[in-house]
Amino acid sequence: MTSPPVTVSLTLPSDLTQLEALLAWFNQYRPPTLPLEEWLKLELALAEGFTNAVRHAHRDRPPDTPIRIDLYIAATHIELRIWDRGDPFDLKAKLQTLPPQIAIDAEGGRGLRLLATIMDELAYQAIEEGGNCLILRKTLKPTPQ
């Protein structure tokens, strides 16, 4: 028997001190059939996406600028959407400029490469109302119960 889909949202200020609250919120939705290792990868991707929104998209914006996180969990996949109010950014073009392996001491790009490695689908889209949406999608391969 599969669980019903989960669709939830959380809005937080653009402040890195909110990361703990974000992860606590996220962890209450872990599907019991999903291996912990896979969930921890999703948690890492969420933390990286939120941190990027705060540090980069909202770099020149007030700390109360909201970041909304949408979580959708279905039997076949998990999707996270992180909505920011930053300037548009061409994620695909940036990923193409990064080397396949990024050095530990590199100035930047490690987080984007990490997201591209963890997720099955990764997109960053400008939205008409202003701002952007980072879409993180992972296909689920649950373990048998």
Automatic annotation (TrEMBL):
GO terms for molecular function: protein serine/threonine kinase activity. Residues 12-138 form the Histidine kinase/HSP90-like ATPase domain. It comes from the Bacteria. Keywords: Kinase, Serine/threonine-protein kinase, Transferase. Coiled coil: none annotated. The keyword Nucleotide-binding does not apply. This is Sigma-B activity negative regulator. It comes from Thermosynechococcus vestitus (strain NIES-2133 / IAM M-273 / BP-1).
